[in-house]
Write a structure and sequence with these properties.
This protein has 273 residues and is α+β, with helices and mostly antiparallel strands. The chain is 23% helix and 40% strand. The strands form three sheets. Strands 6, 7, 8, 9, 10, 11, 12, 13 and 14 form a nine-stranded antiparallel β-sheet that branches.
Length: 273
């Protein structure tokens, strides 16, 4: 039976059709031994292997065998039951991965924008629970500064110089825009540009609108808006998004001339948000 090309299984009344080679990914598993009539738990009835187990959970096991990846829905919660099914079928590598739920569960990412408008200047501070997101956002935001003497200025400035963002920590950044007078009657202006938008904005309200729009397009949801009581009246915008974890991929190595799997090891591959 092991040289059979197509195999039909009925698991708890749910029918699956697959290749024999798919079931033989892990030769020591019960599914591989089933093809050699080496396991009494699987009954061959009218050309189909029948097993009295959960058919819905078996679909995830079949997906693992076909792709060698653990890919579960964002609302999946039956980790212990699926782990038990993996152990039943002798897929102990899969069972080990499922026991580490923290690697598989989606994570909630929090980000907060604090905005304060004072006369002709606007101040921004962004906090994020994920340092990678804050780092990527810092690469998108550029502050340009320019100055000249006198009570007014010609716009645009003859030359604008990029100004590095303040990074108090890996999880936050600080920047500002608007106009101000410095020592010696120098008129200073700061413009903000947020990629992929190429505009240089000096108005704080416009910068805030572009920043919030950028976050919404990146998959964040605005959860709340509040004003922090105090002299400066800082406005706080709280965002969150569900971040998919890195997908777990199994790398299967075969020794030359071997028909089975020699060994398997776990690696991680980023699968996106």
């Amino acid at each position: 039976m092991s040289d059979r090309g197509v195999v039909v299984l009925s698991v708890g009344g749910v029918r699956f059709v697959t290749r024999a080679s798919t079931l033989q990914q892990f030769p020591e598993s019960r599914l591989a031994r089933m093809l050699n009539d080496d396991d009494r738990e699987f009954k061959l009835v009218n050309g189909e292997f029948f097993v009295d187990r959960d058919g819905t959970l078996f679909s995830y096991i079949m997906d693992f065998l076909r792709t060698l990846q653990v890919s579960l829905p964002s609302d999946f919660s039956d980790y212990q039951r699926l782990q038990r099914e993996a152990e039943f079928y002798g897929l102990y590598l899969l069972a080990d991965l499922l026991s580490q739920e923290h690697l598989l569960k989606p994570r909630l990412e929090i980000l907060e924008v604090r905005f304060s408008l004072q006369e002709m200047q606007a101040f921004f501070r962004i906090f994020g629970s994920c340092s990678t997101t804050v780092e990527r956002l810092a690469e998108q935001i550029t502050v340009f500064t320019g100055q000249q003497s006198g009570q007014s200025w010609s716009s645009p400035f003859p030359s604008l110089v990029p100004l590095p963002l303040e990074r108090p920590s890996h999880h936050d950044m600080v920047f500002q825009c608007g106009t101000d007078y410095s020592a010696g009657d120098q008129f200073v202006a700061r413009y903000v540009s947020i990629k992929p938008d190429n505009r240089k904005l000096i108005n704080g309200t416009n910068v805030l609108g572009l920043l919030l729009d950028t976050l919404l397009k990146d998959g964040f949801r605005l959860m709340s808006t509040r004003t922090v009581s105090g002299e400066d009246k800082v406005e706080c915008y709280s965002f969150e998004r569900t971040k998919r974890p890195a997908g777990l991929t199994v790398t299967v190595n075969q020794t030359p001339g071997s028909s089975g799997v020699a060994q398997a090891k776990r690696t991680q591959a980023q699968k996106g948000k």
